[in-house]
Amino acid sequence: MSASYILVLYYSRHGATAEMARQIARGIEMAGLEARLRTVPAVSSECEAVAPSIPQDGALYATLDDLKHCAGVALGSPTRFGNMAAPLKYFLDGTSSLWLTGELVGKPAAVFTSTASLHGGQESTLLSMLLPLLHHGMLVLGLPYSENALLETRGGGTPYGASHHAGADGKRALDMHETALCRALGQRLAQTAQRLEAARG
After folding, report:
1. How many helices (H) and strands (E) would you count in the chain?
2. Could you report the average pLDDT of every consecutive run of 10 residues in the chain (201 residues)?
3. Domain named Flavodoxin-like: which ranges (predicted)?
4. pLDDT for res 3
């Protein structure tokens, strides 16, 4: 039985990355596939700290089964010194069992990020998130310049994936170009997953 959903897996501290995830999910659904939104718990400096098994609000926490059975993945994180946030890295570090069995090989994947400053490491963060996906044998998708918003944006937007400039207070809303690029990335991911499934017969 083929997978019928794209996993939109993200970590968000102040809500900007979560909003990007929702717009990517909308693009996935516009292309005819289910979008499954999942997040990861924060990493704590307290040795005994335990997050509740269900978050107080927002998306549920991701499981390895969410990743194993998806048709593709959109991976999102805020920028942390030009890299993905520790909670997302921690989750990915725990996916060795999927790597050993090749569960993600050949599935399409894309990445997205949000930063406080316009040049706050968007591209290096996106590239850092691609590394574990490449190790899993996934097929990496970016945004082509046939997307007009990529040429017109004055905020976020890169060929490596969707991005957003949230501002110093983290409250700048996604503008129309950033929203368009999030949706375009979701559509591209879903359409690619559908083509790959059709090719498998």
Report:
1. 7, 8
2. 84 95 98 97 72 76 96 97 96 97 98 94 96 98 97 95 94 96 98 94 75
3. 6-189
4. 67
Contact 189/108 with Cβ under 8 angstroms?
Answer: yes
- Return the amino acid letter for 101: T
Both ends of the chain: CA-CA distance in Å? 12
Q: Which residues pair with 74 in a beta bridge?
A: 8, 110
CA–CA separation, 112 and 125 (whole Å): 9
Model pLDDT, residue 48: 58
Are 33 and 194 in contact, with CB atoms under 8 Å apart?
Answer: yes
What domains, with CATH codes, occur in the chain?
5-42+53-200 (3.40.50.360)
CA–CA dist 157, 123 (Å, integer): 9
Q: Find the helix packing angle between 176-200 and 16-30, rounded to 10°.
A: 50
The model carries a pTM of: 0.94
